[in-house]
Protein backbone atom coordinates (compact mmCIF):
# COMPACT_ATOMS: atom_id res chain seq x y z
CA UNK A 1 0.00 0.00 0.00
CA UNK A 2 1.32 3.46 -0.91
CA UNK A 3 2.45 5.85 1.80
CA UNK A 4 -0.43 7.80 3.32
CA UNK A 5 -1.05 10.77 5.56
CA UNK A 6 -0.06 9.82 9.11
CA UNK A 7 2.62 7.34 8.02
CA UNK A 8 6.27 7.76 8.97
CA UNK A 9 8.81 8.22 6.19
CA UNK A 10 10.64 4.90 5.67
CA UNK A 11 14.30 4.83 6.57
CA UNK A 12 16.52 4.32 3.54
CA UNK A 13 19.44 6.24 2.06
CA UNK A 14 19.51 8.69 -0.81
CA UNK A 15 22.53 10.26 -2.54
CA UNK A 16 23.57 13.69 -3.69
CA UNK A 17 26.69 15.37 -4.98
CA UNK A 18 28.55 17.82 -2.76
CA UNK A 19 32.22 17.12 -2.26
CA UNK A 20 31.83 13.79 -4.03
CA UNK A 21 28.92 11.47 -3.46
CA UNK A 22 27.18 12.09 -0.13
CA UNK A 23 24.91 9.45 1.40
CA UNK A 24 21.90 10.83 3.27
CA UNK A 25 19.67 8.92 5.66
CA UNK A 26 16.00 9.78 5.25
CA UNK A 27 15.54 9.89 9.03
CA UNK A 28 18.11 12.71 9.27
CA UNK A 29 16.70 14.46 6.18
CA UNK A 30 13.20 14.75 7.66
CA UNK A 31 13.74 14.79 11.42
CA UNK A 32 12.82 18.10 13.04
CA UNK A 33 11.95 19.70 9.71
CA UNK A 34 8.99 20.67 7.56
CA UNK A 35 9.68 19.38 4.06
CA UNK A 36 7.98 19.16 0.71
CA UNK A 37 9.56 16.36 -1.28
CA UNK A 38 8.46 16.00 -4.85
CA UNK A 39 9.46 13.19 -7.16
CA UNK A 40 9.71 13.05 -10.90
CA UNK A 41 9.97 10.05 -13.23
CA UNK A 42 13.27 11.28 -14.65
CA UNK A 43 15.71 14.16 -14.83
CA UNK A 44 15.91 15.89 -18.22
CA UNK A 45 12.57 14.41 -19.32
CA UNK A 46 10.06 16.77 -21.01
CA UNK A 47 7.40 17.44 -18.34
CA UNK A 48 9.90 17.19 -15.48
CA UNK A 49 12.26 19.76 -17.07
CA UNK A 50 9.67 22.09 -18.61
CA UNK A 51 7.10 22.22 -15.79
CA UNK A 52 7.61 20.17 -12.62
CA UNK A 53 11.06 21.24 -11.37
CA UNK A 54 10.75 24.79 -12.77
CA UNK A 55 7.57 25.31 -10.76
CA UNK A 56 9.40 24.52 -7.53
CA UNK A 57 12.35 26.68 -8.55
CA UNK A 58 10.01 29.62 -9.22
CA UNK A 59 8.03 29.15 -5.99
CA UNK A 60 11.01 28.11 -3.80
CA UNK A 61 11.07 31.37 -1.81
CA UNK A 62 7.37 30.95 -0.93
CA UNK A 63 8.01 27.52 0.58
CA UNK A 64 11.01 28.84 2.51
CA UNK A 65 8.98 31.80 3.83
CA UNK A 66 6.65 29.21 5.39
CA UNK A 67 9.64 27.45 6.97
CA UNK A 68 9.44 24.54 4.56
CA UNK A 69 12.43 22.90 2.93
CA UNK A 70 12.12 21.54 -0.62
CA UNK A 71 13.62 18.30 -1.91
CA UNK A 72 13.47 16.96 -5.48
CA UNK A 73 13.97 13.23 -5.99
CA UNK A 74 14.24 10.93 -8.98
CA UNK A 75 15.42 7.42 -9.77
CA UNK A 76 18.54 8.76 -11.47
CA UNK A 77 22.14 8.64 -10.36
CA UNK A 78 23.49 11.52 -8.22
CA UNK A 79 25.63 12.86 -11.07
CA UNK A 80 22.58 13.22 -13.31
CA UNK A 81 20.61 14.91 -10.52
CA UNK A 82 23.49 17.32 -9.91
CA UNK A 83 23.81 18.17 -13.62
CA UNK A 84 20.04 18.61 -13.95
CA UNK A 85 20.01 20.97 -10.96
CA UNK A 86 22.72 23.10 -12.57
CA UNK A 87 20.91 23.05 -15.93
CA UNK A 88 17.67 24.18 -14.26
CA UNK A 89 19.32 26.90 -12.09
CA UNK A 90 18.11 25.24 -8.90
CA UNK A 91 18.65 27.62 -5.95
CA UNK A 92 20.91 26.73 -3.04
CA UNK A 93 18.85 24.89 -0.47
CA UNK A 94 16.61 23.00 -2.92
CA UNK A 95 18.09 19.52 -2.56
CA UNK A 96 18.46 17.36 -5.65
CA UNK A 97 18.33 13.80 -4.32
CA UNK A 98 19.12 10.56 -6.09
CA UNK A 99 17.14 7.40 -5.45
CA UNK A 100 19.41 5.66 -7.94
CA UNK A 101 18.33 2.10 -7.19
CA UNK A 102 14.70 3.03 -6.51
CA UNK A 103 14.88 1.90 -2.86
CA UNK A 104 12.98 4.90 -1.51
CA UNK A 105 10.36 4.78 -4.27
CA UNK A 106 9.77 1.09 -3.49
CA UNK A 107 9.64 1.74 0.27
CA UNK A 108 6.96 4.38 -0.38
CA UNK A 109 5.22 1.98 -2.81
CA UNK A 110 5.30 4.77 -5.39
CA UNK A 111 7.34 3.10 -8.10
CA UNK A 112 6.24 2.58 -11.69
CA UNK A 113 7.38 0.40 -14.53
CA UNK A 114 8.62 2.66 -17.33
CA UNK A 115 10.26 -0.20 -19.25
CA UNK A 116 8.10 0.46 -22.30
CA UNK A 117 9.96 3.78 -22.66
CA UNK A 118 13.34 2.17 -21.97
CA UNK A 119 13.56 3.75 -18.52
CA UNK A 120 13.16 0.69 -16.27
CA UNK A 121 11.56 1.12 -12.87
CA UNK A 122 11.09 4.77 -11.88
CA UNK A 123 9.29 6.83 -9.29
CA UNK A 124 5.74 7.94 -9.85
CA UNK A 125 5.17 11.69 -9.96
CA UNK A 126 4.21 12.80 -6.46
CA UNK A 127 4.67 15.35 -3.68
CA UNK A 128 4.71 14.75 0.07
CA UNK A 129 4.45 17.27 2.87
CA UNK A 130 6.33 15.89 5.87
CA UNK A 131 6.61 17.30 9.39
CA UNK A 132 9.29 15.74 11.60
CA UNK A 133 9.26 12.50 9.63
CA UNK A 134 5.46 12.09 9.49
CA UNK A 135 3.52 12.55 6.25
CA UNK A 136 0.94 15.34 6.64
CA UNK A 137 0.00 15.64 2.96
CA UNK A 138 0.37 13.32 -0.04
CA UNK A 139 -0.41 14.13 -3.66
CA UNK A 140 0.19 11.41 -6.24
CA UNK A 141 -0.48 12.07 -9.89
CA UNK A 142 -2.18 9.50 -12.08
CA UNK A 143 0.18 7.84 -14.58
CA UNK A 144 0.97 10.29 -17.38
CA UNK A 145 -0.60 13.24 -15.51
CA UNK A 146 0.96 16.33 -13.97
CA UNK A 147 -1.55 18.05 -11.71
CA UNK A 148 -1.59 17.47 -7.96
CA UNK A 149 2.18 17.31 -7.40
CA UNK A 150 2.85 20.75 -8.89
CA UNK A 151 4.31 23.52 -6.75
CA UNK A 152 1.19 25.64 -7.27
CA UNK A 153 -1.19 22.89 -6.14
CA UNK A 154 0.93 21.89 -3.14
CA UNK A 155 1.24 25.49 -1.95
CA UNK A 156 -2.55 25.83 -2.06
CA UNK A 157 -2.94 22.70 0.10
CA UNK A 158 -0.44 23.60 2.81
CA UNK A 159 -1.42 25.25 6.08
CA UNK A 160 -0.89 29.03 5.98
CA-atom Rg in angstroms: 14 Å
Query: CATH class, anyone?
Result: Alpha Beta
- Percent of residues in beta strands: 25-35%
Shape: globular
Low-confidence stretches: none
Largest sheet: 5 strands, mixed
Q: Topology as H/E string?
A: EEHEHEHEHEEEEH
N→C terminal distance: 30 Å
Specify the CATH homologous superfamily: Glutaredoxin
Counting DSSP E segments of at least 2 residues, the number of strands comes to 9
Strand order of the largest sheet: 5-4-3-8-9
The tally of domains stands at 1
Could you say what the CATH topology is called? Glutaredoxin
Q: So how many helices?
A: 5
Round the mean pLDDT to the nearest integer and report it: 94
Structural summary, described in words:
Helix content is 30%, strand content 30%. The chain has a single domain (13-157), classed as Glutaredoxin. The strands form three sheets. It has a five-stranded mixed beta sheet with strand order 5-4-3-8-9. It has a two-stranded antiparallel sheet with strand order 1-2. Strands 6-7 form a two-stranded antiparallel ribbon. The chain is built from five helices and nine strands. With 160 residues, it is of the alpha/beta class. It has helices spanning 26-30, 46-65, 78-87, 103-108, 151-157; strands spanning 13-18, 20-25, 34-40, 69-74, 95-98, 111-113, 121-123, 126-131, 134-140. Strand 6 (111-113) and strand 7 (121-123) form a beta hairpin. The model has no long low-confidence stretch (mean pLDDT 94).
Amino acid sequence: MSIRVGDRIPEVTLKRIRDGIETLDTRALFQGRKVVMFAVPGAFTPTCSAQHLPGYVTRFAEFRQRGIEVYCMAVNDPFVMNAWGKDQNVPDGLLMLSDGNGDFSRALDLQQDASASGMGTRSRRFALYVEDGTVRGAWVDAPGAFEVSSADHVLQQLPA
